[in-house]
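I am still getting used to backbone structure tokens and would like to learn alongside you. Please make up or recall a protein chain and show it to me in full. Would you write everything just below, so we can both look at the same thing?
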Amino acid sequence: MFAEDFHIGAAVNPRTIKTQEQLLIHHFNSITAENEMKFESLHPLEDIYRFGAADELVIFARENHLQMRGHTLVWHNQTSHWLFQDGKGGAADRELLLARLKSHINTVVGRYKNDIYAWDVVNEAVADEGEELLRPSKWLELCGPDFIAKAFEFAHEADPQALLFYNDYNESNPLKRDKIFTLLKSLLDQGVPVHGVGLQAHWNLYDPSLDEIRSAIEKYASLGLTLQLTELDMSLFRFDDRRTDLTKPPAELLELQAERYAAVFKLLREYKEVISAVTFWGAADDYTWLDHFPVHGRKNWPFLFDEQHRPKAAYNRLLQGTLQGGKGDE
């Protein structure tokens, strides 16, 4: 449907490349490792790397001619504790932390430089609320704010051909959008090799508004950066919806989801000159991180394919819009 517009990707793991293999090969042309390339997965101890699961995904992409994105090099979560310690019972100083970061990036990005075309270099460094630009983290505390610039510089040295992204959520919320813009503009003004911004796009049937999405796209694009939606899913529920009694998705919500996906993709298509990829954070409703998050016991159905990998109303609506020349619901 979107071969002439942008890549269509899915987050995967060693289990889903088996259980969803045919779905992935048929409908997607890009993949992202869900957790297998995060710091604690690859580098649990200072002298130990574990590449088995990540390599399995890279081989799957290579054998099936899929593009692959790398996720992620620097994050405040899922990072091994030893990284921030000096080995003597104290905290690592700035020099030690940056040396370790450079070594990690050289090893990981260097290993996959012929297979991974883009990296989420820094993930979720911007504060959600308040006046502070950056969220509190061990990175900020021990290194200072230029840990972000250093990560991009190290990644560019390790693979000069890779596209390097800053990636974040709530990216269309006006307050956080403006903070992300401020960070990106500062990096670009410093000559930091950042090439794109990743809009995670963990959205629901109601938020963010199409106007907010449009404004975010236009604001980020004004910096001359490539845009990618990196973790798209369309929750049937608002974040604080406490329902846990649903064993199947209500028909009325699936219809709203179809309308929402059609409207969103119609909007994205308008900006295909600046959006180079749209990656779902999963592929089908049998596996999604949104199950039990943020409400324990709540099943979710956020994708275009159901638990049996059959096309849902949302998929059919997108197909209908494509056959009509990309007019969506009109």
